[in-house]
Amino acid sequence: MRIVFLADTDQPGQSGVADYALGLSASLRTFNVDSAVECLGPPNSSLRSSLVSRLNNLQPEWVSFQFVPYAFAHRGLVGRRSLPWQALRGRVGTHVMFHEIWIGGHQGASLRDQAIGALQRRGIKNVICQIRPDMVHCSNLLYSGMLRGAGIQNRILPLFGSIPICTGGPDPYEEVLSRIDSGSRRSGWIVVALFGSIHPSENLFPALRWLQDQSLRQGKQLFLVSLGHSPTAKSTFEVLAQRFPAAGKPTFFVKGPLDSADLSRWIHYADCGLATTPLNIIEKSSSAVAFAEHGVPVIVLDVGADVQGVELPRQDLDPAFWLFGDKCLYAFEGLPPRREHQPRLDRVTKQFMAELNM
Hints:
Layout: E1 2-7, H1 16-30, E2 34-39, H2 46-49, H3 51-58, E3 62-67, H4 69-72, H5 85-88, E4 93-98, H6 111-131, E5 135-138, H7 141-149, E6 155-156, H8 172-180, E7 189-195, H9 204-217, E8 221-227, H10 233-243, E9 251-256, H11 260-268, E10 272-275, H12 286-293, E11 298-300, E12 321-323, H13 327-330, H14 345-355
Parallel strand pairs: 1-2, 1-3, 3-4, 4-5, 5-6, 7-8, 7-10, 8-9, 10-11, 11-12
């Protein structure tokens, strides 16, 4: 059995979607499934035009589209020319994993996003009709409901974190904090981490203020760190720092990209994580899932806007996730509790194999 994943790149560390595909591909090989990741290539590129010949050379039984509309087509307007869909239909098993779908579906979306989203939705429906995939997956209940509303049947396949758990070695915050405040001990700080992109949220400052109050109540200082690639981290931290009074201001620190082993340690030794991805799609955030796998509690800042026509069932969320402003979070004297490590990769791989009859 051989499966080829099509992603925006085949290089690690350049894309969350590619890291997911590379991780699942490697895991499948441990279960004796021949697996590879192929780079999709930009639209109208030679790499894109060689796709069919590359797949013919590999001769897979399955092709898995790791789907993000903006990777497949300009402005996310997927259509007949985005890929040679019909060349694959009936020749191989086809699988689609929707990491993202169309924009503009939530209440309060701009007219521009609604218009673009309507075109994206129509294009995705047409593509699904063309390739007639054998299996469609997405990562969360909201996307699942939106896809079903468009007539696209699907199942939920949970994400796993893209950072393998590797926690040997000393707490990396001890050295950093001793440099920032000579003579201070790690036990005198509460470390709150953000990982990856920081999406705008009106609750970011109130959450930090709440965390600062928790720190002061325990006689500790608050340390906020940005891990991984985040172009807006520096400017976001500068704006946040200006909103606190000089006395008792949290310490802000941009660590930036790390190799996976070091990043795992920086995640593991944090006291909690902050997630700017909304709660109703939190399971699509590989960053939030990475914290959860490491046993680190995650404070999710926003509920997320409703989508017209989609009724979400009661969500059985990972117990690592806590909603800011929720009474459950405020029931704690301090932070939510840590848990044991909860790696997902093997479980997700086995579900993937079972549902594709591998």
